[in-house]
Amino acid sequence: MNTIHLRCLFRMNPLVWCLRADVAAELRSLRRYYHLSNGMESKSVDTRSIYRELGATLSYNMRLGNGMEIEPCLKAAVRKEFVDDNRVKVNSDGNFVNDLSGRRGIYQAGIKASFSSTLSGHFGVGYSHGAGVESPWNAVAGVNWSF
Question: Where is the Autotransporter domain (predicted)?
């Protein structure tokens, strides 16, 4: 898989309220071959993705009296996918076209917390919907411990 990803963030007013503008672009190319135990096969000739994304994230930084910091955030973005001719061959029955092109909205909410200078964590949920593509609700969580 070959991927080029570029993301630029512009943070405005880094005090309590924060608005970040987000610009991203990605180019990805991938070839895959799958052979299942029931004899089915699929082969993608060249799966490509080229998109641009423009969005904004609004967050609020709260410093608690015990040294903890909590930062809830909301993100909204618009992504435009350009590639419309990804071809997949299934069981040598011809080519199917996997067209993911078009615009979609991306919506995310999350929270980051710093419990101490060495321990922090985050939790977020997201959803995406648009032209021919819907990504159901998903969640991500993580903990960072530095020592």
Answer: 34-125
